[in-house]
Amino acid sequence: MQTKKIKAAVVREVGDAHALKVETDFPTPELKAGGVIVKNEFAGINFIDTYHRKGLYPRDLPFVGGQEGGGTVAAVSDEAAEQGIKVGDPVAYSVFGSYAQYTAVPAAKLLPVPEGVGLDVATSCVVQGLTAHYLTSSAHADLIKPGEWCLIHGVGGGTCQWAAQMAKLRGFKVIGTCSKGKVDVAENLGCDDLIVLDEVPGTSYEDYESVDIVSRVMEVTEGKGCKAVIDGIGKSTMDISIGSLAHRGIFVSFGNASGAVPAFPVLRLIAKSAYVTRPKLLDYTVDRAELVSRADEIFGWLKAGKLNVSVDTAFPLDQAADGHLYLEAGKSKGKVLYQID
């Protein structure tokens, strides 16, 4: 690999989507011991990337955006070669700096992409797929059992499209919420009940006051409520999520699409002896064994046709700001990617 300068979408000052600037003379990443260089074909666009760009989750400046990519191995360290990794291998990964033509990736973070799974789908799997996997398999701490009810907000969007399908594969009964504009996607996910909401124009979330969701949940569950609520919306749905819980149910809050969940007194949970957790992906992929185990199950479901993954659109990296604007405006009905030349 001879390239000395690369194209990358860089944040030098935090701000709105236009803080993400495409540069064509960014230094090529260094091949480190135990790592590889990946020539990216796709980079995933995720809400957490917008939190980094805005400074909600601070990072040292400047930085290359993104933390999810897929492509082919372009250079291999001696240590990675000893593990059988070769130039040309198709891989996906999650490390910082994926909004670029090339990214340095530790070999331990690589996910080999199996034959029959496209790189666009594999890239989509890394953050959204793995997040949905831990949300439906682990974050609920086994407080929900097969045959019990789970409420998942925003199933018309990216991560929770995966989560709704995975929850069904786990044997849970699923109530999903979605906007009227995303019903066509949500209806194909296998939810046992779908609560359709008005849209909030120009946002990434629905109008959660347009329907009495708690009453509907209690009607569907015959007054029992849900043993788990998976909530990536945040501020707008906190009260709904807590109100929809069953006794000894768990509120799994994993995102902030409508704003961060405000502090609330733990005494609010006493009525149902409820639980709350605020998890993150890194704590559910703590070592390579856990990472690969989750990815293998997801890739297995994909190859078996048990998961329907929707790639909404792929923006050229030159349109980096447009990709963030599209995601934040709530326009996506699936995974949003950058395609990188």
Plain-language structure description:
The chain is an alpha/beta fold and 341 residues long. Helices cover 26% and strands 27% of the residues. It is built from nine helices and 16 strands. The chain has helices at residues 47-54, 78-82, 119-137, 158-169, 183-186, 213-220, 238-243, 288-303, 320-328, and strands at residues 5-11, 20-27, 35-45, 63-64, 69-76, 90-93, 102-106, 111-112, 149-152, 173-179, 193-197, 226-231, 245-253, 275-277, 311-316, 335-339. Strands 3, 5, 6, 7, 8, 15 and 16 form a seven-stranded mixed sheet that branches. The chain has a six-stranded parallel sheet with strand order 11-10-9-12-13-14, with helices on both faces. The protein has a three-stranded antiparallel sheet with strand order 2-1-4, with no helix packed on it. Helix 3 crosses helix 8. The relative contact order is 0.15. The model has no long low-confidence stretch (mean pLDDT 95).
